């Protein structure tokens, strides 16, 4: 999952044509889940971004714990929309207990109710070269803001946090 | 921080020239910290990727809690290497208590020991359009693997996890 596994976007597009998500695949994007409703709502926003940018027909959010919808709820929704395969995509940076154990166990439990529907759990996100670009972009945006050349991003808007502390 | 704030990479490069990290900036990449040493070591790997890909001269890892080095340790190391400004970049997906309170508080504490050194804390990473591309790339790679056309990524190697469950 280090830099050697980075797939340039052109290759990604070509592979997608061969092995990508089909109309009969459902994608579940699952985060940990939070007691803060604000954080749970951000997953919905990410799912919307994901749908818009990829064009995949069936994409559902789920929280591993602490909040609804559960993985089971999302699995049911995918099947109701016609999915015959479910791709569970953890919105987690690193592999850890949740990725190794909890998400597979909850997904197996959800799948029991749907014989004939297969599923796969994808890798965590963190060690991808584009993650460097995201962090670099955040740094650049913050420095541009304090230099007076960019608005605060949505995370900081109204908090007054995006500033140089002397 | 939604899709409207996405900065195409060409713009990023241009802005970096104007407002980017200079030789006198130190970057601290801070994650939560884990009792699992394996997870802490992944941050070191990310820091290496970040150094290699950006070319920034001073980049240090730190864990917010549960593991060393601390934010204070990393801040000291940045100053020792000549930084007169420190950019604290949280390796977190969403803004939450750690981003709002804990990291700012720990950074303020660390900065107290270095009068004249300014700092800034950057935004969380999650709602960035490139994050969609990372997740899409993970999905594509997993599906290519189960189709027999790609190796397991590093997260799955040896675990036998990257497969279709029927």
From TrEMBL, chains A, B:
Pfam family, one: CbiX
UniProt-recorded Gene Ontology molecular function terms: lyase activity; metal ion binding
InterPro entries: CbiX-like, Sirohydro_Cobaltochel/CbiX
Keywords, comma-separated and alphabetical: Lyase, Metal-binding
Domain of life: Eukaryota
Secretion signal, residue range per the UniProt entry: none
Name under which the protein is recorded: Sirohydrochlorin ferrochelatase, chloroplastic-like
Native organism: Nelumbo nucifera (Sacred lotus)
